[in-house]
Amino acid sequence: MYAFEFQKPTSIQAAVEALKDDEAQALGGGQTLLPTMRQRLASPGTLVSLSGIAEMRGVCRADDGALCIGGGTSHAVVAQEAAGIYPGLAGLAARIGDPAVRNRGTIGGSLANNDPSACYPCAVLASGARIITDRREIAADDFFEGMFTTALEQGEIITEVRFPVPEASNYQKFIQPASRFALVGVMVAKYAGGVRVAVTGASEEGVFRWTEAEKALSDNFAASALKDLTVSADGMIADMHGSAAYRAHLIKVLAGRAVEAAA
Question: What is the DSSP-derived secondary structure letter of residue 56?
Answer without folding.
Answer: G
